[in-house]
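Work Package 3 (structural annotation) set out to generate three-dimensional models for the target panel prioritized at the project kickoff. During this period the team completed the workflow that converts sequence records into discrete structure tokens, so that structures can be stored uniformly alongside our sequence database. As a representative example, we reproduce one entry of 413 residues exactly as it appears in the project archive.
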Amino acid sequence: MSLLCKKAIGKEIKNNILTLSEEARIAKEKDPTIINATIGMLYDDDEKLMRFPTLEKIQETLTIVEKYAYADTTGGKDFALAIKKWVFRNYLSEFEKNMHLSVISTPGGSGAISNTFSNYLNEGEKVLLPSYMWSAYKNMARELGIICDTYELFENKRFNLSSVKEKILEHKKNQGRVLLVINDPCHNPTGLCLKHEEWQELVSFINEVTTDGTPFILLYDMAYIDFYNAGFDYSRQNIRLFQRFNDSVLTVLAFSGSKTFSLYGLRVGAMIGLSKKESDIIEFNNANEYSSRAKWSNVSKLGLSIITKCILNDTYKNAFEQELSYAKELLEKRSTALIKALNSFGIEPLPFDCGFFVCIKVDHPTLVKDALVELGCYVIPLDNAIRIAICSIVEKDMLPLAQKISQVLKGRQ
């Protein structure tokens, strides 16, 4: 008889991205010719983890307390102000006039997602996820006794609005509430970015189906928003549409400071509650602060301090934004090189706009991954594709990687 409680029996992480990435890192240390396309961290052209000079300067200015003291569970007022300024930018005063909003610090975007699942769905209810997804969504749902349901992400190489609408109506009918996850822009793992017109149609539809008061939670996973090559303003124009939601809709924005600021190991993020109803935001504060205290107590004080000082000091903020622009250019060059190389071998990746990853739909992803390892290339197998982290490999590796992927795929035909 197992010592585990019933809900823990059967837990096992398969194809853990972090474990596979560590295996690849060790292999590359022994053999520099290894191509490690596993990890979602940004590396520079010298194949070193990218550091932003402005953030290094900020860290040197911090006091012992700013680095190492316990942080407030919510992150504190200065952090909340910084996150609101960064996320809503030129439209912050507009949001504060038209909506109620609140910020709670979390360990990366992961904490925001976990809290949202745990506080807005009952055990046995369903969360609505994209058919291509970050695998940790499933782990978080399983941990909480929540069932994963999916909408088809693509239709004619664009966002599949018809599938999303169909699933929303199904969840409304069957469980009386909807929790929809949209990962955008730079969707993890495909790199899809929703167009403004697609967001307009989705917002309008959500309003239509909630006129009767059906509770609707939109979990907007914006982990990669600041690497969107359309720019800060275009991405915030999409967020601006959330002001149109009626008072049955709560939007939870999951922000990843780990990604935007390349502070991966410091694990800093935020969940931002946005609603027309003040009572919903009071509940958001109470429930999510409680969950945060119960799960992780507080997040890294060092990470909070770096992000807060960077955003609230205009000199630091402007310098950092320039450095971020360089990072986006780097990603664009790499994606262009990889897709060109794949196409030259007759391989068409899944629809990609921009971001950290490119995906190729394959049968038997784990077997494809294993075959690529034999050829000195490491990628991540998903349920229905392999994921290539262009963020962590240099431009010169794109052609040899594409050649080896072609070799494996043709060998399996």
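The first strand starts at residue 35 and ends at 36.
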